[in-house]
Amino acid sequence: VLITGAGRAFSAGQDLADPLVAPDGSPKDIGLMLEHHYIPLALRLRSMPVPVVAAVNGVAAGAGANLALGCDLVLAAEGASFI
Fold this sequence. Notes:
By secondary structure, this protein is α/β, with parallel strands linked by helices. It contains two helices and five strands. The strands form two sheets. It has a three-stranded parallel beta sheet, covered by helices on one side.
């Protein structure tokens, strides 16, 4: 399985305008977001019966960097960065 980004970045990370993380003064349930989205994705990557390759073509930020690093193999372009 090959995972890559479209355009200049692999992944910009979590959308900070998402209602679960937007800083509007009320507490956010980040655990719920992790439980329902990120953890199942990480477990699925780990359980794949074939190798998973991340082709990082630019910036891999935050959650996107973690996604790439959870793959079996990471191929990074010369201009790629992990933040």
